[in-house]
Amino acid sequence: MTRSGMLRDAVIAIVALAVLVAIPFVFTKPSLRDFLIYVMAYGLLAMSLNLLVGLTGLVSFGHAAFFVSGAYMFGLLMQSGNVSIPVAMLITVAGTAMLALVIGAICVRLKEIYFSFITLAFQMFIHSIILTWVSLTGGDQGLRGGIPRPPFLGIDLGNSVALYIFCACVFMICIVVMRQIWQSPFGYTLRLIRDNPNRANYLGVDIIRMKLGIFVIAGAMASVAGMLLALFVSGAYPEFGFWTTSGEAIFMIMLGSSQLFIGPIIGAILLRLLEHFVSIYTEYHGLVLGLVILAIVLGLRRGVADFVVEWIERRKAARAPATTEHTACAKEGAL
Amino acid sequence: MTKTTKGISRRRVLKGAGAVAGLAVFGTPHIAGAQAKVIKIALPTILSGRVAILGTSSRSAVQLAFNQLNDAGGINGRKFEVVDRDSKGRPDEAAKVTRDLVNNDGCEIVIDGEASSGSFAVHEVVRDLGILCLHTCSETSSLTADPKQFGKNVFRCARQGIHDAVAGGSYAAKIAKEKGLKKWATCSPDYAYGRDNTAEFLQYAKVFEPSIEVVDQLWPKLFAPDYTESITKLLQVKPQAVYSALWGGDLVAFIEQSNLYRLFANTAYFSGGLGDPPILSAIKNLPVGLNTAYRYNKTFPNSPENTAFNDAYVKVAPNEPTNWAWQNYAAAQFIIEALRRTNASTDSSVLAKEIAGMTVKQPFGGSGITMRESDHTIINYPVAWGKTQSKAPWVTDYVDTEWSKILEFEKQWKKEKGYA
Amino acid sequence: MNLEALFSCLSSSACAVTQVSTALIIGMLLFMVASGLSLIFGVLGVINFAHGAFYMAGAYIAFFTYQATSSFLAAFLAGAAGVGLIGVIFERFVISKVYGKDILMQLLVCYAVILIFDDLVKMVAGPEYKMMGMPEVFALPPLELAGGFVPAYYVFMIGASLVIGLGLWLAIEKTRMGKIVRALAINPQMVGALGINTTLLYAAVFGIGSALAGVAGALAAPTRTLTPGMGLSILIESFIVTVIGGMGSIVGALIAALLIGFTRAFGAIGFPLFVDGMMFGMMAIVLIIKPSGLLGREVTR
Amino acid sequence: MMLSVQNLDKRFGGVHATRNVSIDFPAGSLTAIIGPNGAGKTTFFNLISGAFRPNSGKVIFDGQDIVGKSSLEIVRLGMMRAFQVAEIFPSLTVNEALTAAVISHQRKSWTFMSRFPVPEAQTSAEEIIELLGLEDKADTLSRNLSHGDQKLLDIGLALAMQPKVLLLDEPTAGMGPDERWRMIGKVQHLWSVKKMTVLFIEHDMDIVFKIAQQIHVLKYGAVLATGTADEIRRNQDVIDAYLGTDHHLSEAIGET
Q1: Contact partners of C by the rule of 3+ C-beta pairs under 8 A?
Q2: What's the whole-number mean pLDDT along residues D73-93?
């Protein structure tokens, strides 16, 4: 069963990647590629945050700290001109993981809302460092002059289709990694912590270390998201690490679902589509977006994806009342 | 965690739904480009949040220019449409919105109404796309002065920090000499623009009047609502003159709060940002005799064309023209003139060739504003300092600075910076 | 870092008076905002992320009332009452629907409200800067006190905040209604069982907490620029205050607000570059050592 | 001696919650801790399981003093507990929760590369489910279980850790009379199968007298009496302590 779960996820991932890669050849409009890269970057940020929020029950308000650190580390490494893109990516992931380790070591000792606050405080701290350390970061102007994309292994990311395909591959690799974490014994142990940390402690789970572990992983994943965005906009900006960016990631999770693995991606697509269209038709997009959020929260009281899934299941249940719970659970690995 | 049934079907349904939505959106191409008569101008800018006025005044000016053109019959039978979009002040959003406007909405010319970091983000996009772009709001010198930033089809139609610094320095030095102002302090927002602007102002003030001594420098946060601690600090330090790069709503608050302490009773004040009419009229008790750089004024240059612009603008815009308004209007004039000369060609490099080195006569510059060919930025635009008075038009006694002098020091500055 | 300047300031009465008053000016206004936030959290267990938007609403309501009536008193009362009403409506129709849901739901609806308010303000008042202007009554030269200067309006502002803060404290600690509210914070079922309409009480507490933000907005309107989005920075600062002081504690909010005020006023003299760092630092240290804040009680919701 | 408590003392401010308690628990014993409300029974469990740190005294568990060790370390040494109010994982199924607990016991919580549930853990979890008699409900969400089944699951979670010592805080709390007997029957069965040392707190004297090998009576934090069911029944101190406070005991004594 476990082998087959992995196999099936791998097949799904390959098919999804194939579809993603095929899109620019079927629909050649560059704006669709842009939209998808954007969704992938922010979706990855939301997905990585959901490892904390949905899987472990840690509501971080400061996740964008790692998003911005990924963008800047990567941008600075590439601007230094000494490393190739894959090497810079690996160094950035490792560097951000170290940063997350240091910050996490302090944060994970706090519980509930206090955890949220201290992550927020660290994020604001990092944001203000970026603003003040002008000689390195360019301050509020961001990393200027563009991020070079030297060809590696015959791949030239200066070509926008190549860039898109590269982003899609990196994105899918991260999704597969997170999926594996989500379904691994590690992931289930995190669910114990989410549901009842005290009980988990009395089952021999080292809560602090587990939380720190997932904090570091989530931070590293967020740095990949930051790199994708930096590659796409060819720059890095302090706004990437402002609290509103963390906020957006949270809204993506909430809009989609925190309990379905792909919920945050759905949320990212929804939020981006919504913003895209509303801001075309009115400059008062805040008003519209606000009303839509209120309607969803007060009307559905759960994420849109949660709602759709429940609705489908209710209909299924109505059609086939004989479905036993056991078969339902056998499919558990599916999402 | 809802855990009743979970099947592969769910994933397929959700993924599918998302994909369908996405494709439905982007799959149907907007009819744009060659078939359409309308030429679309993209205007990514900031329309929400604290600096929304930057976007709204930019938009009003660009729309005014192209509406006037359309009313006059367009060019070669072609009409123009301005497509603006809010970046919310986020650089990544600015980049994305710009790409969208070009790739999806079919815009063929970009007027970049982004400030600060947003303009650098747009800069990368337009260099990447090779499309014609005029930056209209960023005053950061390096955007065009740094040769690394050069883009064949990219221009800046906005005032530039270094020009203002030379003009401000020489003006301040003159007053300092006359009145014996030796002890200076600064109070500017703590971010790259505020720091650069202040440093450059002081540098040239000292060049022109070496006896100036800086006794303190205060750096309140950008968008700080309250400046009391900076103001009381200034009261302690007792400088004879204060320079400030504060702008916008921050400046309004700073002046009103300083009034409470009567700060300007004994201290001369030099401001880089006070000259915008919406700021001047927002301040309820505008002290008389504050020194400010020109941002925009309907009486300067005192020409019928400028008055006409002002009158036309206030009819369509929610507020008086700002510095951003004239810059955007001027940018539109460059584009329109280039379109005229090329019979409404939309080939970016053809247009860019025309704009490089072009001079537009009206309505802001005396002998016309020139887009310098070498670094794609404007010169000969109004650079002047004046003094405040208690009623509209708020600032008078503008003192012009010779452009020859500005250019001379700019050349030197470029050498120092390694830009030339 | 310039400790010498700090010491010489402290030893000169003129400087000390001016800077202490600066600390109070910054601190008391912050206290007004933070106390409302803290009250709402203490009783309802809700973190009102929309509090900054309420502050903005208070400032704009005061601004328009002042334009219409030229009376600062009317502007002040309208700001407080108007935002109080907005608070009650918000509580009844929006936030009460997500009581007991996780904090993310609350965050989401508050974010929605911030977006809506910012755009409404932009629609109604325009995107440009607004300034209410100093009312005639306060158009006096600054008061001189032992060589230091304190503007007349700020004396009023500090006094008004103190009176309101004291009134709030007395109401909570010394009245029957205050007792009920405190009981409500600890055991709502019990209060409900006593035949008290808890729904009404929740709305009232939320309204009062919001009104405090409105008061702060109205008090700030004569000296601060009004723009859409102006609530953001004060929201962040008042969060720092409530976290340091302890969520739910009014006295804690006062102490923390003054702490921030003094840090900023004297930091400007002694260590201007580290003021922000100090504020975050204090918050981080408090969170690490005593997560519930200086005077907060552990909350498990 | 599996567990030996020596001169254990704990104060909370002015309250002397545990007073110089010394009790030995032989390996494989089944011992009841009883006492009136507020006697300090749960505090006693909290002290030996590392939730609270005693002011003085020793807790010798399997040959080593565990005072000062964290609750996590103590758990890993093999002392497990179940709680008065069932502490479970609401959003996991019975099977998932038990499997995850087994994985924790096998120290495989940090496994990333394999998929949950790993077969070895799954097997152990299924054994426990069978032992508890929860086969029908293996795939039910924990939060949808009946009260009694939740308490059973709580104990099952502890069993997943292969405990040497198991502390049960009122396993029958909140149950009806029939259910109580079913529950305690299961506890006794588990004890005999698993050969653990079991300590349990219980209010129902009938149950205590029926199954406990040894009974320790706490009152005001101190040991009032120790002995077998018969000895306790006859102990005048115990009768005095319970008279007026708990008629059930006197009834229970009277009945026999």
Answers
A1: A, B
A2: 88
Domain positions in chain B are: 33-160+301-379, 162-300+383-417
Tell if the CB–CB gap between C116 and A287 is shorter than 8 Å: yes
Domain limits for position C146: 3-289
Beta strand spans in chain D (E): 3-12, 15-25, 30-34, 56-61, 64-65, 79-82, 165-169, 197-201, 214-219, 222-227
Same-domain status, D39 and D50: yes
pLDDT at D129 over 70: yes
Q: Could you tell me if D122 and D192 lie in one domain?
A: no
Let me know if residue C296 belongs to a domain. no
Amino acid at A153: L
Q: Which residue does chain C place closest to B318, by CA atoms?
A: C126
What DSSP letter does each residue of B210-262 carry, written as one string? TT-EEEEEE-PPTT-S--HHHHHHHHHH--SEEEE---HHHHHHHHHHHHHTT
pLDDT mean over A221-241: 91
Q: Chains D, C in contact: 3+ Cβ pairs under 8 A?
A: no
Residue D37 contacts A, CB cutoff 8 Å: no
Q: Are B137 and B44 in contact (CB under 8 A)?
A: no
Chain B, nearest residue to A316 by Cα: B5
Overall domain count for chain C: 1
d(CA D45, CA D52): 9
Q: How many domains does chain D have?
A: 2
Domain at B162-300+383-417: CATH architecture:
3-Layer(aba) Sandwich (3.40)
D111 and D43, same structural domain?
A: no
pTM of the model: 0.86
Tell me: do D178 and D66 sit in the same domain.
Answer: yes
Token pair, residue A302, equals 């759960």
Residues of C whose CB is below 8 A from B228: 22, 25-26, 154, 265
At B366, which amino acid appears? G
State the ipTM, two decimals.
0.83
Q: Which is more confidently placed, A189 or D230? A: A189
Q: Does C105 sit within 8 Å of A53, measured CB to CB?
A: no
pLDDT tens track for B309-327 = 999 999 998 889 999 999 9
Residues D171 and D231 in one domain: yes
Gap between the Cα atoms of A50 and A174, Å rounded: 13
Q: How many CA atoms lie within 13 A of C10 on its CB side?
A: 9
pLDDT for B331:
93
Q: Say if residue D140 is in the same domain as residue D171.
A: no
Which pLDDT score is estimated for B71? 92
| AA identity, residue D253 | I
A10 pLDDT more than 80 = yes
CATH architecture, domain defined by B33-160+301-379? 3-Layer(aba) Sandwich (3.40)
Q: Are B107 and B118 in contact (CB under 8 A)?
A: no
In this structure, the answer to whether residues D55 and D181 fall within a common structural domain is yes
Least confident of B215-219, C260-264, C297-301: C297-301
Decide if D157 touches A, using CB distance below 8 A: yes
Same-domain check for residues D75 and D97: no
Residue range D156-206, pLDDT digits in tens? 888 888 888 888 888 888 888 888 888 888 888 888 888 888 898 888 888
Give the separation between CA D74 and CA D64, rounded to whole angstroms: 11
**List of chains touching D (3+ CB pairs within 8 A):** A, B
Q: Percentage of chain B with pLDDT > 90?
A: 47
Q: What's the CATH code of the domain at C19? A: 1.10.3470
State the average pLDDT over residues A303-307. Answer: 81
Q: Are A261 and A48 in contact (CB under 8 A)?
A: no
Question: What are the residue boundaries of the structural domains of chain A, listed by start?
Answer: 2-238
Read off the tokens for D182.
Answer: 């079913």
| Residue-wise pLDDT tens digits, A169-203 | 999 999 999 999 999 999 999 999 999 998 999 99
Q: Which residues of chain A does C275 touch, with a Cβ-Cβ cutoff of 8 Å?
A: none
